[in-house]
Amino acid sequence: MSLLRSESVEVVADIRSLPRSNRNPQFDQDQLELLLREAGLRYLYLGNELGGRPQELRFYRSDGRADYRSYRRSAAFQQGIAQLLWWLQRHRVAMMCAEEDPLVCHRFLMNGAELTNLGIRPLHIRKGGTIEKQQDVEERLLIEVGFGDLVKGALFQETPDRAAALEEAYDIQAARCAFRLEPSQMSAWEFGS
Asked: Between the CA atoms of 160, 162, 167 and 172, what dihedral angle is there, to the nearest 10 degrees?
């Protein structure tokens, strides 16, 4: 709560596909919503639209990894982004998921990428209250996947080469970190199971 207050957050948009925690039950959807309400904050659940586990098999690659770039073009995702934008126009919103480091999270790899394309520059509240800018996480990403030459010593950060490399870097990192269905889930896929 102190981190949210320090950033003047008014609404918490929960973008977890499964809004519960085995390790921290206080972050289960019902408990979290109550806790936020008691603190004077609003709770908004957008995990069905903006969560890292798409609900349709067509948004998974043959290896079972979620295909975030493909999912970003879906009607469900775009509806979720539209809802988020509506709230952003009226309130200071924090998107919440389960990962602390944005580099390994769909909040950055899927949602942050789309928001950046729309001209919004998310800030990431890290452990201990440290704020990391979207561009700084993107630079870490470029270095992580081997495109560090576009970061170090570059005079102009926003070049066509950098934009193309960044899209490729998002895909590479998502292939490493995105949610993955097990092979048995791929062959016996049932919507909502």
From this structure: 150
pTM recorded for the entire structure: 0.87
User: Angle at CA 15, nearest 5°, toward 27 and 4?
Assistant: 60
Tokens of 85: 């934008």
Amino acid identity of residue 133, one-letter, is K
For residue 88, the model assigns a pLDDT of 96
Letter string b/e over residues 90-123, b meaning 16 or more CB atoms within 10 A of that residue's CB:
ebebbbbbbeeebbebbbbbbbbbbbbeeeeebe
Element (H, E) at 59: none
Instruction: Give the Cα separation of 151 and 142 in Å (integer).
Output: 7
In the chain (193 residues long), the average pLDDT of successive 10-residue segments reads 90 95 88 95 97 94 93 97 97 93 94 94 90 94 88 56 88 94 70 43
Q: List all residues 6 or more positions away from 188 whose beta carbon is below 8 Å from its beta carbon.
A: none
pLDDT at 169: 94
Q: Which amino acid is at 84?
A: L
The length of the chain in residues reads 193
3-state SS track over 108-171: HHHHHHHHHHCCCCCEEECHHHCEEEHHHHHHHHHHHCCCHHHCCCCCCCCCHHHHHHHHHHHH
Q: What is the pLDDT of residue 193?
A: 41
